[in-house]
Design brief:
The structure holds two protein chains of two kinds. Chain A is an alpha+beta fold. Chain A is built from three helices and five strands. Classes of the chains: A alpha+beta, B alpha/beta. The complex binds iron/sulfur cluster (2 copies).
Chain lengths: 93, 365
């Protein structure tokens, strides 16, 4: 479980890139890539080690209003869990 | 051309030259005929044209890519195109200073291969004293802040060492460990008798690596690639012919896979003589095994034909002399007996003599 006050940062091996062909962002890492939907791209872009999970949720809840905050929080948590599982994220305390 | 055929990865084989002589080298047996034919400007144009076609991943490989004196310029050019660039090296002719400069030029990942966990057995496979130096290079990779992929090709002489390999990868803080069973094409096919493991060896190694994969999830990615000689169905070789990968050989041939230019009857175009897009979309060789029109039975009416695309064309050719048949690795192939015979042989083989990679003028078989 990822703590709300932790500060996620993309792992050194992961890099975000815009894909002109599909107009989506890709998260690239050795031999692989994840296609990011717009929300995931927003979350990944905020994983710089500066923002807490809580702050990321706040930021996106504002952007995606009137989507319920609980829904946004769920999206953030599940995407961060995907990243962690693949070793694509570090959390700074 | 539809998204069904979009290249994501360019494999740039910058040279076939290499200081090592690995007994399973994937370079063609007649590699010495293909000299370095592309200069810096040619390669940079290939990168640009590949990126325009949709490529986002670039592998700088060979042979030994660090033998190219223009590698710095190539890395810089790749970075300017925002390609995710991976250097695949034996580590041998590489200095720490040069590696550090690759870092500042924007190289993303370094893959170092080792052959085993101890110098004598590792060097025996590489045909050269290299092991200690490789470990040193792997340490530099991490010290300089790169992600590290450790690649180990597995065969009957090292399959029993998977625990030790995992431990070594952890000690080196590798980010990704590739435990890739030998694919029996090129030099590995020449040396198949001495390399092909038994089912029991494989089974054990697979269990060990599955446990490591579980334990290291989130820290180190552990990948175990089964050899298709022991799988029911073949692999989707290169994710399908001319579908996701472009390989460019040192002399400039644009290819769907590392060994395609050794198949007779196909003419591959040189990137020096035309734009990559035309070659990718229109050349008869890239279209030869796309889709299903070329497929014979049993593939033609098989449910898996959109999953494995009938397997490896090169393996089909090297085992049956016909590139357009079902990969013999498939249990449904009428030629599957060839694979069963090789497995049978592995049960009685006692390891053996290798033929090391060395220049040959023509492929012998
Ligand atoms: S497999 Fe070995 S001999 Fe072949 S290119 Fe790689 S390091 Fe060199
Ligand atoms: S018959 Fe052809 S398509 Fe079916 S599993 Fe075998 S190789 Fe794949």
């Amino acid at each position: 479980m990822i703590a709300l006050d932790s500060r996620p940062r993309l792992a050194a091996k992961a890099r975000i890139r815009f894909d002109r062909k599909t107009a989506r962002y890709l998260l690239l890492y050795p031999e692989r890539g994840l296609v990011l939907n717009p929300t995931a791209a927003d979350i990944a872009t905020l994983c710089t080690g500066e923002h807490t999970v809580h702050a990321i949720v706040e930021r996106l809840a504002e952007k995606y209003a009137p989507q319920p905050r609980a829904q946004v929080e769920h999206d953030v948590m599940s995407f961060l869990a995907t990243l962690a599982e693949r070793g694509l994220m570090q959390t700074d305390p | 051309m539809s998204d069904e055929y979009r290249p994501y990865t360019l494999v740039a084989e910058l040279t076939y030259r290499c200081p090592l002589r690995c007994v399973y080298c994937s370079n063609p047996v007649d590699y010495a005929r293909h000299t370095d034919g592309l200069d810096t400007a040619d390669w940079l144009r290939v990168f640009r044209e590949a990126e325009a076609l949709g490529v986002v991943q670039l592998h700088l490989t060979g042979g030994e890519p660090v033998l190219r004196e223009d590698l710095e310029a190539l890395i810089e050019g790749a970075r300017a195109l925002d390609l995710y660039t991976n250097l695949i090296t034996s580590g041998i002719p590489l200095s720490r200073e040069r590696l550090a400069s690759f870092r500042s030029l924007g190289l993303d990942n370094v893959q170092v291969s080792i052959q085993d966990v101890m110098a004598p057995s590792s060097d025996r496979i590489a045909g050269s004293r290299a092991f200690e130096r490789k470990l040193e290079v792997a340490r530099w990779v991490k010290e300089l802040g790169f992600p590290l992929t450790l690649n180990v090709v597995l065969h009957r002489e090292n399959l029993g060492h998977v625990e030790e390999i995992v431990a070594l990868a952890e000690a080196l803080s590798a980010d990704r460990l590739e435990l890739a069973n030998t694919q029996y094409v090129a030099w590995a096919l020449v040396n198949r008798r001495a390399l092909l493991p038994t089912a029991a060896q494989l089974d054990r190694a697979r269990r060990v690596s599955a446990a490591a994969q579980q334990r290291l999830r989130g820290t180190m990615e552990v990948l175990f690639v089964m050899p298709d000689y022991y799988s029911e169905f073949p692999k989707a070789c290169m994710d399908g012919w001319g579908r996701r990968f472009i390989v460019v050989s040192p002399d400039g041939l644009a290819l769907p896979c590392h060994a395609a230019h050794t198949l007779p009857g196909l003419h591959f175009d040189n990137v020096k003589h035309g734009p990559l897009e035309t070659i990718w979309c229109e050349s008869p060789a890239f279209n030869a095994f796309r889709g299903e029109a070329w497929m014979p039975e049993p593939c033609k009416s098989c449910e898996r034909r959109t999953i494995d695309f009938g397997g490896c064309r090169c393996q089909a050719f090297y085992l049956t002399r016909n590139a357009a048949v079902t990969d013999p690795a498939c249990v449904l192939s009428p030629d599957h007996g060839l694979i069963e015979a090789a497995r049978q042989q592995a049960l009685s083989a006692s390891g053996g003599d290798f033929e090391y990679r060395a220049p040959r003028s023509t492929a012998r078989k």
